[in-house]
Specification:
Layout lengths: L7 E6 L3 E7 L5 E8 L7 H13 L9 E5 L23 H9 L3 E5 H12 L7 E7 L3 E7 L2 E2 L30 H5 L1 H11 L2 H4 L3 H10 L3 H23 L3 E5 L6 H11 L4 H4 L3 E4 L6 H7 L4
Parallel strand pairs: 1-4, 4-5, 6-9, 9-10
Antiparallel strand pairs: 1-2, 2-3, 6-7, 7-8
Bound molecules: zinc ion.
């Protein structure tokens, strides 16, 4: 990574949390803040509140660029088009609003693609020729970076590859398909598997506690192996189509990477010539990875 000319602002606009960073030219986080996305409310007031948070970050107003990674779809002009995950901001042009209120150039991109760009520059994807990033969160996001260039459709919109059908039944999706990968293998799906597997008193404490219990329990292997196999069913298709050399797993579901990896590998049953040669790695940039990646977007 050659670094940027000036500090940059990165914003990870997720369905649950919004994280902001100021990133130095060589990738160091100089300042950050996090708050629930619901705090912003809806409509133009939400954009004004987001801009106010940007201005409060130390060093923000000296930054040369604002990148935003938002739960997709995102239109090329920076308008959010995701009524399922970001209802309060859907239909609003986040790029134009932040540009107008701060005087700093701004671009908005799909959050999985932003995370992929961050891992390519500063994380587990360094050196990859074709990086495939899979984020296991509320849904599944997929970003593809080719020699540092983000892959989008001809309309400028990043493909939503969490919505590929996988073998099996019983995972109907809000997108209209009957059996989407993200319904089967997102972190939310892992939480459902965990809630069904742990004792009732632990399940009553909530889905995060259920996953944490499984991760520490000997019998957690069975559930996490099943979860890995579910991830593998969708990944197999993406390996066949894209033939990446590095696959990075991010999002909070990837905290169980070491535990689900055996099941994932067992689920990838195609002969090697159909998938090519690739490495599977956990993301390195942590909770702030989406915001760091957003700061790395091209202006
Ligand atoms: Zn779907």
């Amino acid at each position: 990574m050659t670094g940027f000319g000036a500090a940059r602002i990165g914003i990870d606009l997720g369905g649950t949390k919004t994280r902001l960073v100021v990133l130095s030219p060589d990738g160091e986080v100089l300042a950050s803040s996090t708050r629930p996305t619901a705090d912003y409310g809806a409509g133009p007031e939400a954009l004004a509140a987001l801009a106010a948070d940007v201005r409060q970050l130390r060093g923000a107003l000296e930054a040369g660029f604002i990148g935003v990674g938002a739960s997709g779809p995102v239109l090329p002009d920076g308008t959010i088009d995701n009524p399922d995950t970001l209802p309060g901001l859907t239909g609003l042009n986040v790029a134009a609003a932040l540009r107008d209120s701060t005087g700093i150039d701004c671009r908005v991109e799909n959050d999985a693609l932003s995370a992929a760009i961050g891992e390519w520059h500063f994380g587990a994807g360094r050196g990859a020729r074709r990086l495939l990033m899979v984020t296991l969160g509320t849904g599944i996001g997929v970003g593809l970076v080719d020699d540092g260039r983000p892959y989008t459709g001809t309309d400028g919109i990043a493909p939503e590859a969490g919505h590929i059908p996988i073998p099996g039944a019983g995972h109907p999706c809000y997108c209209g398909l009957e059996n989407c990968w993200e319904q089967s293998a997102s972190r939310s799906a892992l939480q459902q598997l965990a809630l069904a597997a742990v004792p009732a008193d632990i399940a009553a404490a909530g889905p995060q506690q259920a996953v944490a219990h499984l991760a520490g329990a000997p019998d957690g292997d069975r559930v996490l192996t099943e979860y890995g196999a579910r991830i593998g069913r969708g990944l197999s298709t993406l390996l066949t189509v894209h033939r990446p050399d590095v696959v990075v797993f991010g999002g909070s579901g990837a905290e169980q990477f070491d535990r689900f990896l055996p099941g994932l590998r067992a689920g990838l049953t195609a002969r090697p010539e159909y998938h090519g040669r690739y490495e599977l790695r956990p993301a390195e940039l942590g909770d702030l990875g989406g915001a760091i990646g957003a700061a790395c977007l091209s202006s």
